Amino acid sequence: MTQHPLVQLxxxxxxxxxxxxxxxxxxxxxxxxxxxxHLVVIGAGTAGLVTAAGAAGLGARVALVExxxxxxxxxxxxxxxxxxxxxxxxxxASVRDANAFGVHVPDGAYTDFEKTxxxxxxxxxxxxxxxxxxxxxELGIDVFFGDGKFEDNQTVxxxxxxxxxxxxxxxxxxxxxxARASAPPIEGLQTVKYLTNEDLFSLTExxxxxxxxxxxxxxxxxxxxxxxxxxxxxxFERGQSILSREDADAAAVVARAFEKDGVTVLLNSDDMKxxxxxxxxxxxxxxxxxxxxxxxxxxxxxxxxxxxxxxxxNLAAVNVDFDKSGVxxxxxxxxxxxxxxxxxxxxxxxxxxxxxxxxxxxVIQNALFAVGPFGKKKxxxxxxxxxxxxxPEIAHVGMYPADAxxxxxxxxxxxxxxxxxxRAILEGVPEGFVKIHTVKGSDKIVGATVVAENAxxxxxxICLAMTHKLGLAxxxxxxxxxxxxxxAIRKLGDxxxxxxxxxxxxxxxxxxxxxxxxx
Length: 519
Prior knowledge:
This protein has 519 residues and is α/β, with parallel strands linked by helices. The protein has three domains: 14-79 and 121-181 and 308-381, FAD/NAD(P)-binding domain, CATH 3.50.50; 189-304, FAD/NAD(P)-binding domain; 392-503, Enolase-like, domain 1 (2-Layer Sandwich). 33% of the residues lie in helices and 23% in strands. It has 16 helices and 23 strands. α2 (46-57) packs parallel to α10, α4 crosses α5 (113-127) and α4 (79-96) crosses α8 (217-229). It starts with 13 loop residues before the first helix and ends with a helix.
C-alpha cells in the first residue's frame, strides 16, 4: 500500500526549527539495539509516549519507534495548535463584543493572522520538550526514528531514513501508530488542493473565503475560529444539523453562536462536486433538498474521516487482525496475538488524547504485570469524557438518552439552564445548560452534557462522581463557591433531592417541626 507522507513543518521559522529539534532531531542517530526488550512500542503519539515512559519508569527495557514526529497528532497537528488558534479567536470575539460591557474599542482593531499563527507555533514549540527524543532517551528508552514493522512474533524491524536497519527483539509489543486524515469519496477531490488538520496550521495568510466539509468537532471548531479571524466561512454538512453526534439541544446552542459569528452553514449538502477555477480557487457545488448551489472558496478544509495507520506494519505476519476501523483488540487491549497490545487511535472508537493516555496505562498493567487472568484491567471500566472547543464548548460523558434506551436503562433527566445562574448572567454568557441523566428513581449518574464557555473544565466534577460512584445527591450536598458557573451542577443535586420530598416525608417534617416549635 502507498506510504502515508510525512507531516511537514512549515514555515520553517525559528519556532518550527525548535519543534523539529525536539520531536524529530535532524542529526539523530538511532541507538544500537539491546539484545532483547521487555516492550517495543510502535508510535510516539500520546498512547506510545505514555506506554513507553510508564513502562520504563517501572523498570522495563523499552524501545520506542516513530516514523514521523514525536508527540503525534496532538502536539503537532491536533489538540495543541488548534487550541492555540482557538484561544486567539476567543480574544478576537471578546474585542468585537466589548461594547456590550461598556468597553469602547477604537475603530481599526483587527486580527493579525500571521502573528496569531506565529504565537501558536511559538507555544507549540515551548510545549514540545515534554515529548522530545532527548527527554525520552534520558528516561532510559531507546528511541528509533524510521519505519517500524513486524518481521515475526518477536521482532520489529526499523528502517531509518538514512538507510540503516535495526531489528528489535521483544517480549511484548504495543501498536500505538495512531490515525490520520483520510480523503472521503467526494467527486473532484483529487483535482483540487485541499487542507486537512495536517497542513491547516501551516497557513500564514488568512483565507478570505474558507470552505469546510464536515461539522464534527474539527470542522465546527475551525469554522468558528476562522470566522472570528475574519474569513467568510462556509460549513458544508450532509446531515440536518451540525455536531450531529452531540445532544441536539447542545448543538442548537452552538448553531446560534455560529450565526452570530457569521458562519454560513449549509445543511443537507448532498452530491458534492469540487473543481478548480481558472484563478486558482475552488468551486464547491452541492444539492440541498434537490436544489443546486455553488460556492467559490480560496481554501477548502476536509474535516471528515480518519484512517488508522495500519499500512506497512506487516500485521498479517504476526496474526494481528485489523480492518478499516483499526486494529482489533479485546477489553484488555490485547490484539489477536497475545504478545501484542494496542492503544490510542489505532484501535479506539474514542479518538481523544486523554483516552489514549488512560488506555496506555491499562496496556502497561496488562502487558507487563498481569499474571494470567489476575491483575488485568479493562478498557470498558474507563469513564471517558470529551469536549468540543467551540464557544460555547460542549462537554459530554457517559450515555445519551438513546444509549440508555438501547441498553434497556430507564432514566431521569435533570436540566439547569445558565440563564438562571448568576455567574453566567454576569459574564454575559447566559446560553447553555447542564444536563445530567440518572438511573430512574435513583441518583446514580449515567451520563451528562455541559454547554458553557468552560464546559471542558466543568465536566470533570461529573466524571469524578461517575468514576467513584458518587450520586447526584452527593454533588447537591457539596458546597460550591458563589458565584460560579459550576454552581449549576450543584443545583441539579438540589433538583434530585426535591424529588425525595414526598407527601409522607413532608408530613413527618411537619410533625417534627410541631414538636420543636409548636403549631
